[in-house]
Design brief:
5-stranded antiparallel sheet; Beta-lactamase; about 15% strand; 11 strands; alpha+beta; single chain; about 35% helix; globular
């Protein structure tokens, strides 16, 4: 059992000076389970909303590559990663791709562990929106930022806007700023005012297994983290309204140097990045997850990287995004 207080300690360490999740997500038990059948996949989705697509029925679960048109696509991404790592632009790169209508997917070193850092702000958002399901008026509640501590000072990739000392902000505005701008001051206000048992409930419901007391193991794989995005898109953890709201917040992200930079202008991407610097070694980690709303169907792309320069790591993410988008565009409709 996790003690409630451990969430705050753990998330603060992740967003500011390190830390992260330890271990991974159990991917096979998300809200519902689908019976697998070889060489077949068919998902039935509910239509009409902009960002979400609830999954009503499915005939297969799990990653699909063998015998599918994604096989050569995967190896193009692998070749790109090999080229960029050989050039010294990154030391480690993991990728997870999933077409969200068909379920077809692949991973490249998808079990390798990285520090998720600000990606964990998505968990705090989910906890607040879960509360708002029960009490929608909660989003209008205000909290005042006293300015005593500037939690954004330690961020390398600075938020476009941060909170003004002495100003009160609604919960709705704080969530937006935490996600779209990755503002640590907004994050801290929300974290300090959430019942940590509600954060623990997300861990329990999504079968996250980690121990924040084991700092050396605080990490998460690209495949494991993808589950947070999948339950938002399928509206299987938050209700439809709050899942839409979460993805709308994510679609307003201002980080343009990664996944967004690799897709054509005007394509909607619901994205969140995370960055971390290991002070002793100088190693830097930069990650990004996004749902790309491609005209042929939305897909999830998660990329985790480790190297020595944030600009070069961002360019690796951007180039992978461009290749993935081009390949999805060139393939037959799913």
């Amino acid at each position: 059992m996790l003690v409630a207080r451990s969430w705050k300690t753990y998330l603060a360490r992740c967003a500011l000076v390190g830390g992260g999740f330890a271990a991974g997500l159990v991917l096979g038990y998300l809200i519902f389970t689908c019976q697998a059948e070889p060489r077949r996949h068919s998902h039935t989705h509910m239509a009409s909303y902009r960002f979400t697509s609830p999954l009503l029925d499915c005939e297969i679960a799990g990653d699909l590559t063998a015998g599918s048109e994604l096989q050569p696509f995967k190896y193009k991404v692998k070749a790109l990663i090999s080229k960029r790592t050989a050039a010294g632009d990154a030391d480690h790169v993991s990728v997870y791709f999933r077409h969200l209508q068909s379920g077809a997917s692949f991973g490249i070193k998808a079990g390798e562990k990285f520090v998720p850092a600000s990606l964990l702000k998505v968990v705090v958002m989910m906890a607040w929106l879960k509360r708002a399901e029960r009490d929608p008026a909660l989003l209008g509640r205000t909290f005042r930022y006293d300015g005593a501590t500037d939690w954004s000072a330690l961020q390398t990739i600075k938020p476009r806007e941060t909170l003004a000392p002495g100003t009160a902000y609604t919960v709705d505005d704080l969530i937006f700023r935490m996600i779209a701008y990755s503002d640590n001051n907004a994050w801290r206000l929300l974290l300090d005012n959430i019942d940590t048992r509600e954060l623990d409930a997300i861990v329990a419901d999504l079968h996250v297994n980690f121990d924040p007391t084991k700092a050396a193991e605080d990490s998460m794989s690209v495949r494991a983290y993808s589950s947070f995005y999948r339950v938002l898109y399928n509206a299987t953890y938050l209700n439809r309204e709050m899942s839409e709201k979460a993805l709308q917040y994510l679609s307003n992200g201002v980080f343009r140097d990664g996944i967004v930079g690799g897709v054509p202008a005007g394509v909607t991407v619901a994205t969140k990045f995370g960055e971390k610097t290991l002070e002793e070694s100088g190693i830097r980690e930069l990650h990004e997850f996004g749902i790309v709303y491609h005209p042929r169907g939305a897909f999830l792309l998660g990329i985790m990287t480790k190297g020595h320069d944030f600009t070069r790591l961002a360019s690796v993410i951007r180039e992978i995004s461009g290749v993935v988008y081009s390949e999805v565009s060139s393939q037959r409709a799913h």
